[in-house]
Amino acid sequence: MVSPGRDGSSQPDVLRTPRLSLRRPVPADAAAVLQILSDPAVARHHPSELVTELDDVEALVRRWLGHWEQHGFGNACVFEEGTGLLVGNAGVRWTTVDGGRGLNLMYRFSPATWGRGYATEAADGLLGWVRAALPDELVVARIRPANLSSQRVATKVGLRRDPDLDAQGDDGVEWAFTNRS
């Protein structure tokens, strides 16, 4: 099933990879998302994104859903195919990049799943959808310089370090990895 956005683009409600399914969030996902986003290890490189209250995650999920409703794609909940467990969130959403429009690629996973290649698999699936549905759009993953794992994910899925688009984030300098030639 596809959810068309106001801008004509649409991501399948469920995007499948070999081991994962990424789907539009629902309000009932908030408690499981809280278990991931409240882990200090997950927020180590972005301490301002640490959430510890269910109300805050419910508001976050509503923002994710608002992007889906407006654009037909956005941040998704990521589930293991074999277990059905919610193990992370990943997605693309519109953002401002160097005064223009671009797609921000993000991925966050439960530390219990780190090292399994889930972030790479989810990011690769999302970029495949972007290449098919929005081929001319700039994709940027903003990554803190010390976050070597996230940098490896970005390069494995074909993004390149793009110092011209580095920016100051809430928690310090963020390096840009993009699909720009």
TrEMBL record:
<dbReference type="Pfam" id="PF13302">
    <property type="entry name" value="Acetyltransf_3"/>
</dbReference>
<feature type="region of interest" description="Disordered">
    <location>
        <begin position="1"/>
        <end position="20"/>
    </location>
</feature>
<dbReference type="InterPro" id="IPR000182">
    <property type="entry name" value="GNAT_dom"/>
</dbReference>
<feature type="domain" description="N-acetyltransferase">
    <location>
        <begin position="20"/>
        <end position="180"/>
    </location>
</feature>
<protein>
    <submittedName>
        <fullName>GNAT family N-acetyltransferase</fullName>
    </submittedName>
</protein>
<dbReference type="InterPro" id="IPR051531">
    <property type="entry name" value="N-acetyltransferase"/>
</dbReference>
<dbReference type="InterPro" id="IPR016181">
    <property type="entry name" value="Acyl_CoA_acyltransferase"/>
</dbReference>
